[in-house]
Amino acid sequence: MRLEPILKPSLTILIEGAADRDDVLKRLAAAAASHAPEHTEVELLEALLAREAQTPTATPEGVAFPHAMLPEVDETLLLVARLKPAVSFGGGDLPAPDLIFCMIGSATKPWEHVRLLARLARVARGPGALERLRTAPDAAAMYEALIEEDRAHG
Asked: Do 34 and 58 form a contact (C-beta atoms < 8 A)?
């Protein structure tokens, strides 16, 4: 599964001054709600919070992968955010993530969700990929960097 058909410039964002993980998720839910008319911002936030309550989605690379699968989602949404400053997502002694890949997918198509997670992991592991996303001067440049990384991984 390629990122390019799913990734949207309007869902590639910079989040500054978030108070905590819940604030980050609230901002992501608000951004996603404009692209998911079948669900409210509150429903999206509750789904993301419920998933994080199961197990934090932070990784040792300073990235988090919050995600949710909901009924009646017409198309998978991918939100990419860079946080300034980084915000803890729990996960014990893992570094606070400053890059977020948030997915909202259909509960009736779980395989799409798994494929997207796998693709994001491959792209993020590319040499220098995370650094290019972290140093992009703005959201538009972050979007372009991610598209380039996606294309580089076939």
From this structure: no
Whether residue 28 contacts residue 82, with contact meaning beta carbons closer than 8 Å, is answered with no
Cβ burial 125-152 (10 Å sphere, 16+ → b, else e): eeeebbebbeebeebeebbebbbebbee
Q: How many domains does the chain have?
A: 1
- Residue 73 domain-assigned (yes or no): yes
Q: What is the pLDDT of residues 25-70, one digit of tens each?
A: 999 999 999 898 888 999 999 999 999 999 999 999 999 999 999 9
pLDDT higher at 123 or 27: 27
- Determine the pLDDT at residue 93: 85
The range of the structural domain enclosing residue 79 comes to 9-152
139 falls within a domain: yes
CATH code (residue 53): 3.40.930.10
Q: How far apart are the first and last CA of the chain?
A: 10
